[in-house]
Amino acid sequence: MRRRLAEIEPEAGERASLHADDLPHGDVVAVYRAMGSELDPEPLARALAASGAVLCLPVVLQRDAPMIFRLWSPDDPLEMDAAGCPAPLPLAEDIDPDLIITPLLAFDDFGARLGQGGGYYDRTFAARPRATRIGFAFSDQRVDRLTTEPHDIPLHGVLTEVGYTPARKADPA
């Protein structure tokens, strides 16, 4: 489905960036470099940088460890990390984000996200519990309810091409 959305909504990342001011504040914001059909956060990164945010990208050094983050600007050179994702060069400064933008396959209104299955973001979220966690997706990636596991760390909200939505509290069972 995400591949289809990427084909029919090529400007979705640009439209989502128009809602950058609606995000929770972050002095240091982690974005990502889109791979495949992921919603492209580059317009959002440029909007955040223009508003004064310091940007960084995640870096996988070990497959079973939380990611680290390195300082980054949109025109900086990149190399592939241990997971095969574009990442800043090792000479870039390590930095701790207070807002983390994450890609996903699906999300619900309660902060649950379905990732790619590697656990990179969940391990990283667990290691940085004070960071605000925001999904970045096409609005049509929303589902009614996702089943979560104990290791799944919920999002604080999701930004799509139609705007920012904070996660709702789950109804008591």
Order of helices and strands: HHEHEEEEEEEHEEE
The low-confidence runs, each spanning 5 or more residues with pLDDT under 50, are none
- In CATH, the architecture is 3-Layer(aba) Sandwich
Tally of separate domains = 1
How much of the sequence lies in strands comes to 15-25%
> Which sequence of strands runs across the widest sheet?
3-2-1-6-9-10-11
Based on secondary structure, the structural category is alpha/beta
Question: In the CATH scheme, what's the topology name?
Answer: Rossmann fold
Question: Can you give the helix content as a percent range?
Answer: 10-25%
Topology of this protein?
Elements: H1 2-8, H2 12-17, E1 28-30, H3 42-50, E2 54-59, E3 68-71, E4 78-80, E5 86-88, E6 99-102, E7 106-107, E8 113-114, H4 120-127, E9 132-136, E10 157-160, E11 163-166
Parallel strand pairs: 1-2, 1-6, 6-9, 9-10
Antiparallel strand pairs: 2-3, 4-5, 7-8, 10-11
Describe this entry's structure for a reader:
Helix content is 17%, strand content 23%. It has 173 residues and is α/β, with parallel strands linked by helices. The chain has helices at 2-8, 12-17, 42-50, 120-127, and strands spanning 28-30, 54-59, 68-71, 78-80, 86-88, 99-102, 106-107, 113-114, 132-136, 157-160, 163-166. The chain has one domain (2-164): Rossmann fold (3-Layer(aba) Sandwich).
